[in-house]
Specification:
InterPro entries: Hexapep, Hexapep_transf_CS, LpxD, Trimer_LpxA-like_sf, UDP_GlcNAc_AcTrfase_non-rep
Largest sheet: 11 strands, mixed
Strand order of the largest sheet: 10-13-16-19-24-27-30-33-36-38-39
Number of strands: 39
Protein name: UDP-3-O-acylglucosamine N-acyltransferase
Structural class: alpha/beta
Keywords: Acyltransferase, Lipid A biosynthesis, Lipid biosynthesis, Lipid metabolism, Repeat, Transferase
CATH topology of the largest domain: UDP N-Acetylglucosamine Acyltransferase, domain 1
Enzyme class: transferase
Radius of gyration: 25 Å
CATH class of the largest domain: Mainly Beta
Catalytic activity: a UDP-3-O-[(3R)-3-hydroxyacyl]-alpha-D-glucosamine + a (3R)-hydroxyacyl-[ACP] = a UDP-2-N,3-O-bis[(3R)-3-hydroxyacyl]-alpha-D-glucosamine + holo-[ACP] + H(+)
Helix content: 10-25%
Distance between the termini: 51 Å
Strand content: 25-35%
Number of helices: 3
Number of domains: 2
């Protein structure tokens, strides 16, 4: 794949400088002045690219690799071709992430549609009572409601809606078409295109003529350094708050119900649904397309496999999977037994034929 004009290669960072900045050790000092301009996967990396390798399973990809440097740990260094300089690190993926951020800083958050613009676009609407600190960019067609507060260095994308009384910290990006209401947002938060924050939670009570709506008068609290993916929805609390903890990363198309409390530094992958009033501890990882029941607790450091159905509490540090979710080793045993039975039935059917 050729470099595209959306994220063109930069002028370049010397290999020695890059190694210092990402905390890696340059194995070939003679390559110190090589310039790194971009990132690439191992199999198609060219001159000027940096890539990384995590296991010997990728060894075949090295046959077509022409990278200017490759990140790996000490155990994998012997399999790297002699013509490719090695940057040694105990965490190649982490070092690669740092390198990518240095090479493509503009790709670290949604880009401005009007990059040459500054201040408030004349095509935006900002209520006179809203308070904006210095260096806030408000792009065309954005709407900022009464008494909203937006901190220094924020960018409000085109068509975004910031509701009345919303408070947004400093260095945040609210991308195009996102809606934020009934919410308090910390510093350095990224909310991607089309996300919906702070709308009604799903609450109804049976009545004589059908379902009666229960008022949702809580808030959404989003702490510092949270990232929320495109078209994700986070409902405000019924009477308490929905809370997203510091450093948590939420993928696209995730649904988080009212009164949910998610801890610090969690990872929640696309199409996860978390029902109301569930508590998720710190450092929890939830795989894609999993469903989490309401009013349960997932303990600190737990991991939920993709496409699981979590019906009951998960203890801290445990790995669960399946439907219903259970300890991963038990789930894998059940899968193996099911496959064995299916294979046995197949062979029996073949003999009868």
């Amino acid at each position: 794949m050729e470099h595209n004009h959306f994220f063109p290669p930069r002028e370049g960072i010397s290999l020695a400088s890059l190694a210092t900045q990402i905390g890696a050790e340059l194995h070939d000092i003679g390559a110190s002045e090589r310039l790194i301009r971009s990132v690439a996967p191992v199999y198609r990396a060219k001159q000027g690219d940096i890539c990384y390798i995590l296991s010997r399973r990728s060894k075949q990809e090295l046959d077509t690799c022409e990278a200017s440097a490759i990140l790996c740990d000490k155990a994998l260094a012997p399999i790297i071709p002699a013509h490719i300089p090695v940057l040694l690190t105990s965490s190649p993926a982490t070092a690669f992430a740092f390198a990518g951020a240095l090479l493509f800083p503009s790709a670290m958050r949604p880009v401005a549609i009007s990059p040459a613009m500054s201040g408030v676009s004349p095509a935006a609407f900002v209520d006179p009572s809203a308070r904006l600190e210095a260096d806030v960019l408000v792009e065309p067609m954005a709407v900022i409601g009464a008494d909203a507060e937006i901190g220094e260095g924020c960018r409000i994308g085109p068509g975004a809606v910031i509701g009345a009384g919303v408070k947004i910290g400093r260095g945040c990006t609210i991308a195009g078409g996102a809606t934020v209401q009934s919410a308090l947002i910390g510093n350095n938060v990224i909310i991607h295109n089309g996300a919906r924050i702070g709308q009604d939670g799903f609450g109804y009570a049976p009545g004589p003529r059908g379902m009666l709506k229960i008022v949702q008068v809580g808030r959404v609290i989003i702490q510092d350094h949270v990232e929320i993916g495109a078209n994700t929805t986070i409902d405000r609390g019924t009477m308490d708050d929905t809370v997203i903890g510091e450093g948590t990363k939420i993928d696209n198309l995730v649904q988080i119900g009212h009164n949910v409390r998610i801890g610090r530094h969690c990872g929640i992958v696309a199409q996860v649904g978390i029902a109301g009033s569930t508590k998720v501890g710190d450092g929890v990882m939830i795989g894609g397309a999993s469903g989490v029941n309401g009013h349960i607790t997932i303990g600190d450091g737990a991991q939920i496999a993709a496409m699981s159905g979590v019906l009951a509490d998960v203890p801290p540090g445990e790995r669960y999977g399946g439907v219903p979710a259970r300890p991963l080793k038990d789930f894998l045993k059940d899968v193996a037994a099911s496959l064995s039975q299916a294979e046995s039935r197949k062979h029996k059917g073949g003999k009868n034929d």
